[in-house]
Amino acid sequence: MRKQCQIEITNRFAALENLSDSEDINRAWENMKESIKTSAEESPGLHELKQHKPGFDEECLGALDQRKQAKMQWIHDPSQSTVDNLNNVRRDASRHFRNTKKAYLKAKIEELETNSKIKNIKDSYRGISDCKKSYWPGGSIVKDDKGDLVADCHSIVARWRNHFSRLFNVHEVNEVR
What we know:
Layout: H1 2-16, H2 25-42, H3 58-76, H4 80-117, H5 121-132, E1 142-143, E2 149-150, H6 153-168
Antiparallel strand pairs: 1-2
């Protein structure tokens, strides 16, 4: 797979060697870049990256691009107007992401409700498990002074209370430098 891609690129560069020296450097770079891209696309094993965040659409990509452009303007010209523009664009992008996520979750919940109403158990459980994948409950086991595991909630609170009282109460130290 890698070998085939290397052969494709070598063949395309062989065709680029015949270019004249008077050609513009930017044009030569564009030709090289296109040759590499088309070789990579034609070689086997190229796959599209899957979308990791559900509900992230083209409008979200546009909001990201706007935010990047505003930041680049602020980097090149750190005036108050570009700072204000950057803050406004960031606020709008965050609002858009939040609203998109809410709309996705609302649609997902409606889909789960529909599956539940029509007694489609398989899809209901699949949708619930997809929603649960992102949730990880925190650890609820702590070691006590002796190193034994404590799982009782009252013992855990007492252990943390003891730990922080020893950590912050430094009356035992006679000399502090």
